[in-house]
Here is the input.
Amino acid sequence: FNVGPGVVRHLILAGHDVHVVSGAPDFVFTSEIQSPRLFIRKVVLDCGAVQADALTVDRLASLEKYSEMVVLCRASILATEVEWLNSIKADLVVSDVVPIACRAAADAGIRSVCVTNFSWDFIYTEYVMAAGYHHSSILWQIAEDYAHSEFLIRLPGYSPMPAFRNVIDVPLVVRRLHKSREEVRKTLGVEDDVKIVIFNFGGQPAGWKLKEEYLPAGWLCLVCGASENQEIPPRFIKLAKDVYTPDLIAASDCMLGKIGYGTVSEALAYKLPLIFIRRDHFSEEPFLRKMLEFYQGGVEMIRRDLLSGNWTTYLERAVSLTPCYEGGTNGGELAAHILRDTANGKNYVSDKHSGARRLQDARVLGYQPQRVPQNDILVPDWYTPAYNELGLHN
Here is the structure.
């Protein structure tokens, strides 16, 4: 099981043992879940995106690392995972969204399901287009691995994922609040008339420092992910690494950070305006941004203004917004219900419309991947963007 705590908690509440396979720190799960039914196994089965810096992905390095970690060691990984799955007598494998986990489940004779808003075949397609067709076999292997899953539980803000045979959509998966806004502010010693921005920006640029003058009068900043030796100026509050961030998000007036599913989902759920910095080569970002802006909850900050401390205009714009997301936030509970039924043998979907669904999913409205001229050989057909005049110039 490799998926977030929002789903794990509901499965444990339903009486299931859940084995989490993850390289994430234990507190990511234990801050939300305290149960003898939770088992954490420290294993990393993919590498995600390798970042050149806080805002840019190194596309070639990402492909090379995936090849080194997963492709070259594939037989050994599968043998180890199959043996482990059999040893714990697993009934279902759930992944977010590790490709080889689906194949390991199939080899062990166990059903698998993915829960995600993006998949790595789509993300790596852009990297292959930029880095060269000799890495294209990675895409096909990932897509084939995903095809072993029973279906995809698809989260809002999703990108194209045609490798999956069937899809079930659920609302936002968000972590519940433990404390009220008033309780959090009282603990921090912050008066009601003080504005709070939560700085949720892991991997800050090297050599860059926060400065008090970045904040306008009457503002405080809560800093997530600061290193132990990082100096924090007045009116900035360093948060502990294992702090439960949903409570602090709900107690703030806006958030400054990068677009990712967890950040966007909790910003929308708690109606907190998000000031975001656009990142390079994060292919899932446009879809999450579209959702964020549709619900009037986003303000884009230019990168140079972040680094130069020109924050005031963006903070004032953010607190003037009224985010209007009124959709469900019980995606974790619904996903857990679906997974529980699947583990018990229920069939949720059929292949009747899977071909048409895949074609539709490959053409998500309003977006096409950027073409890298003369460097897109052997990219899977469903991801090849159409030529147009604007595309040629780009």
